[in-house]
Amino acid sequence: MKPFLFLGTRAEDDVAQQEYDAVLAGCGLRADELVRVRLEQGPLGEVDLDDWSGIVLGGGPFNVSDPKDLKTPAQRQAEADLRDLAERVVAADFPFLGACYGIGVLGGLRGGLVDRRWGEPIGALPVRLTEAGRQDDLFGGLPAEFTAYLGHKEAVARLPQGAVLLARTATCPVHAFRIGRNVYATQFHPELDAVAICDRIDAYSAHGYYEPHEQELLKSAAREALVTEPVRLLARFVELHASV
């Protein structure tokens, strides 16, 4: 089998490792079958799509809607690399699954718009599939409504031209979409469990996702949530796209 490529952007080593391990487990792959590149550490470099079965992009603190003068050189480099890769992936209809930051990367293509109108606080919320989502090859195996962990400052305000809306919440109109047949973005995090989201709440306490006094309350609510379905997307993505 050709390996899958995992792209990360988290500068915190422990959180970056936890994210990769969670995606690895969710995909049901070995480490040599899910090769990791950390974009916050350096340029992506050349990616030959023929070398890979598919690409998974993780989340992180980067936002495409951040003011330009506040973006670090690493963020600007990652955005440029991912924009170029996304254009190629969409043109080739190459298997791609971007979680959270994938919304920012894909959401601005083809006339789409990503802004801060539909941010949601860290926690767990019901996600509802659209009719297209219920019929989709990747999402169709999930219940029509399921609970997922999320937390984001930006979201898609206008879908890219030709994109298919797959899921939404009551407070964010775009939680997943597809471009072509094989290119996906989710606003929620399919890899997260209660332990991981609590660790992220701690790790990003100074990043403006919540007020300091909310930290323990958010963790308590996250532990009480029953989140079982989103991780199935990762294994399904591998099932659909693993190639020799």
UniProtKB/TrEMBL annotation:
Short name of one Pfam family: GATase
CDD domains: GATase1_1
InterPro entries: ChyE-like, Class_I_gatase-like, GATASE
Annotated keywords: Glutamine amidotransferase
Metal-binding listed as a keyword: no
Oxidoreductase in keyword set: no
Segments forming domain Glutamine amidotransferase: 49-192
Full protein name: Glutamine amidotransferase
